[in-house]
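[job 0412] stage=fold_complex status=start
inputs:
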Amino acid sequence: MSAKTAIVIGAGVLGCSVAAELTRNNVRVTLIDEAEIASGTSAATFAWVNGNNKSPENYSHLNFLGLQAHERAAAAGARWFHQTGMVQVAQSAVEAEGYERNVKNIAWPEYGARPLTRAGVLQLEPSLDAERVVGGAFYPREGWIDVQTMCHSLAEMCLEQGASFRPFESVKEIRDNEVVTECRDGSLSTYTADVIIVAAGNGTPHILRSVGIDFPLLDPHAHPDERGSVGSSVGVISTTGKVDAGIRHFVRTKGVALRPSRNGGITFSDHPTGGQWAQDDPRTWQVPQTLLERAKALYPSLKGAVTKNVALGTRVLPSDGLTVVDWVGSGAPVYAAATHSGVTLSAHLAETIVRELLTGHRDESVQSFGLDRFKERVPSEAGS
Ligand SMILES: Cc1cc2nc3c(=O)[nH]c(=O)nc-3n(C[C@H](O)[C@H](O)[C@H](O)COP(=O)(O)OP(=O)(O)OC[C@H]3O[C@@H](n4cnc5c(N)ncnc54)[C@H](O)[C@@H]3O)c2cc1C
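[job 0412] stage=fold_complex status=done
writing structure:
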């Protein structure tokens, strides 16, 4: 299918990436969001870019392709991928053995993973409390994305090239080639395009219901007990104020993961919850303090650091935990993209989605990430 105009619903990391790729391919884009740029899940993410032994292997490989797409963007001048490398710190001999196995399990030599001795860890992260370090591993190609800079830069590029952005307009329904939105004052608008891409994160099922599709996304508000094994919907992302703690890499160890932040502080993610707490569990708010204490035990240089910012992120989780990119098969030219690990995957998925939209060629890397696999639940006319 050849498209000259497109509507992208959702201005998160996925929608902004798709809008930018369409714009680069001379498609005129209307980008719509019910809030602002990067205000959904993309506003509360750990943003670790990696293909580090995810399961199954083709999903891990998809993530590695995502990492490589960010590398290409950085080489072309993009300023948002901080390719610090990831240092995994073992605090016991058992952990060191486990990390060594993990390194061996990574299928691609070019990923560059390697085990580290205690001295090797301390050379990379000299501010660590040396007493705690037994060994570790290094993943030099991993890093983190400054998602706000990425989304805003991509959206700006689109606007400069003639795209339009409609913030604070909520998509109510799709009818054929038309998207109907509602503004905050209740007024309705209608937009038309050759193709419509729904990248609305957790808002995707609601939008696709209007074209008769039961989109297979887990209900982000369901209690963890009802969600099965796929994982937690809610994660806590907390950030300290500016601190020079000598932390140079993305660092993971038992009980805490941390990385430098865009404000000059340190950002933590939510390991202690283990995904078992409901969204409104008050213990959630204790997580930042727990993580900061653990980090201070590792890095004495964090003494005096305080938490400045806490965000609750709601994961976008297709019901098998993997990516969905596909035509929805409603008869209308509607394509959907929804995924966890969307920060890692965004640049690669944008390239493959836009190629598929414009040439009909479906990239090998996404062959198994269509809607067909849910055909028990979804009408299987995908591929319009
Ligand atoms: C705690 C946590 C940690 C994470 N860590 C990582 C990580 O380390 N690495 C990684 O790669 N990924 C990570 N992720 C996942 C990643 O953040 C998400 O996959 C990604 O942000 C999803 O982006 P998106 O653009 O698909 O969705 P969103 O960012 O949610 O964007 C969707 C947009 O659609 C808009 N929208 C919704 N409904 C409508 C409607 N009806 N009309 C108009 N607009 C609408 C919303 O306002 C929103 O702006 C993490 C997620 C969480 C929650």
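[job 0412] summary: Residues 9-15, 32-35, 39-42, 44-48, 170-171, 199-201, 203, 207, 235, 237, 269, 313-316, 339-344 surround flavin-adenine dinucleotide (CB under 6 Å).
[job 0412] exit 0
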